[in-house]
Design a protein that fits this description.
By secondary structure, the chain is mostly helical. It is 57% helix and 9% strand. A hairpin with a 5-residue loop joins strand 2 (100-105) and strand 3 (111-116). The longest helix is centred in the N-terminal third of the chain and has 27 residues, at 2-28.
Amino acid sequence: MGHLHGALRFEALKVQSLKWVSNLGASMGKLPVSTPPAASCVCVVGGPIDVIGKKWTLCIVVTVGNRPGIRFNDLLDALGGISPRTLSETLKALEAQGIVARKAYREIPPRVEYTLTEDGRRLRQAVVPLMEWAAGRPGAVCQPARVR
């Protein structure tokens, strides 16, 4: 109950401060008049955002999108530094979200290839500029050459 009361009090203070900034900006003619973020922001927390927000996800999406189909070990080699378990779990999560498609071939030895779905291609197109920007930053896990 105390947490709820504190959250409500914080929200009231936030709205009050936004009104103050809004009124100050209107009176000075210099600051933009803003509305509370909740009124103008569409919150997309959960679902796909939980998946693509993980460390390796965007690198996987971009790397899978660089080829018409890629096998698990080739993807593992291309990413460098990711553990097989993390790759497997991330691919399963991306498949569950409809971003990656998994195709198993009835061959001996068995062969599985991963491709991007239409949603995955749209996501890749949207994140390539972000990945190119991030590749040159400290702590980047993907190299610019992998973003095509």
